[in-house]
Amino acid sequence: MECKVKVTFADGSRRVLKDVSELTKANKRREIRVVFKDGRYIDLHLGRVCTQLGIVKVNTFGLLPEGIKLDKIMGWCYKFHRKTSKRKKL
Question: Which CATH class is domain 6-78?
């Protein structure tokens, strides 16, 4: 992605999509939202990214096909922001 892509989802949340090449750096414990080139999106937990085959392995517990092709993905983001504490420790 050469430019920033800002997306507003149906629940009202707004996110900036990250590039598909950064998918290997995603935190496996956090839920991510993958946006496809046709405008659909899906929430999932990332399993493994196989760049040689061009496939993303997902942990969906049998609800979806085991892999998603990388060329169909426009971008991704985390579903929830990381919570930070605004209180200072004394």
Answer: mainly beta
